[in-house]
Structures are given as structure tokens and as C-alpha cells.
Amino acid sequence: MNQEPYVEVxxxxxxxxxxxxxxxVCECGHSYVRHFDPYESMxxxxxxxxxxxxxKETVTSMILEEKDYDSGLLSDYGGGDVKWWHDYLRNVIHxxxxxxxxxxxxxxxx
Length: 110
Hints:
By secondary structure, the protein is mainly alpha-helical. The chain is 30% helix and 4% strand. 4% of the residues are buried.
């Protein structure tokens, strides 16, 4: 018989991270801070408002943490040419939409 004298048990504990962001939203629809008990040293108790026992951030919440699209400085190249400005703004809006679509796709592929 080749048995070890002890059985090894590893325990994983989840603790509140004050720097994570209390307003981030869980898949259950409640905020991060609602998954911890402020009266018990922020012990991980699961969501106090539903049966969710583990915080899992929503994709929407993660995307909202991303930086906004920055088109850079506007030029005055078009002067008073309204058609030029319409085309310019359409291109900026297209670039912005492309930026957000690619960002959203990168999260939904995970």
C-alpha cells in the first residue's frame, strides 16, 4: 500500500477588490458591490438580491469601461464647402462605428 499520510485540500476564496469598480454589472443584473456583505468585512456572500452566487461581469459592462473613440482634431480644410463637411463627417462617423463594432466583436468572441 502506497498511501500518503495526508490528504491535501486546496481552498479557493474570493475576496472583495476595492479597486475593481463597485458599479460594474454582473450577469444577474446587480452591481459588483452587491455580491459582498459590508457588515461582515465585505465577505463574499453572493448577490443579496437574487440566487447568483458568483460575480461574472457582463460584456456590456466591460465595453462601457473602454475608452471612447477619438477622431483627433478637426481640420478646417473644408472651409465653407458644405458638401465637403458632409463627406468628412460621414467618414468620421463610419470610422467611429467601425471602431465600436470591432471592439464589441472582440468581446463577444471571447
